[in-house]
Amino acid sequence: MARDFAVIFDMDGVLIDSERHWPPLEAGLMPLLVSDWTAADQLELVGMSPHDLFEKLADRPGFSLDKATFLERYVEVGRPIYEERCDLAPGAAALLEATRAAFVPTALASSSPRAWIEMAIHRFGLQPLFGAIVSGDDVRRGKPAPDIFLHVAAREGVEPASCLVVEDSMPGVQAALNAGMPVVRYVGGSHFGPGRPAAADNCPAFDKWPDFFDMIPSLEKETTGSARHGEQG
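Above: the chain's sequence. Below: its structure in token form.
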């Protein structure tokens, strides 16, 4: 039997403030892998899974790694970000706890490899707050394809139209829309800086987690309200 409602969260740039750590790391790494890496290429990486990144690099001049070797090395490159450097987004844990306490199913759908997800959720103690946890390793096509969100909906037993997705990247937003799911965009991550994007007609935006309930009144009625008055940061 399908449940009535579920909230699906992205991880990087939404619950975990990790995106700001990637540009300097990738700016040093990518020119070593391909000879024609550009700033425009760099801008395309937000929201892209390592599997899709491999496909992007595979035919580029100078790239010589097979997929298994590339993924293994890339996971290790990211390890310090998730084990040491990234922060939990202020207010995110309180919101997750309030939502789960109200028996609203919460799930995680991240393009990151499962290894990075496990590093982050164990470090911040988030694992008990999620039902389904789906990684970029678990689906054939990454965002903006809808696969990861449809997989989560099936795991949670919720119809796609009854899932609310919280994303930060445009590939993630488009993936949710392609899955037939309503989506809101969190733009409070430090990687957005002061010039935060405006809301679009099909995707409201917010930059502080306590504001999440103001955007979703039906969800606020289901919760105790503790996330609104908890960790504000």
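Residues 20-85 form one domain.
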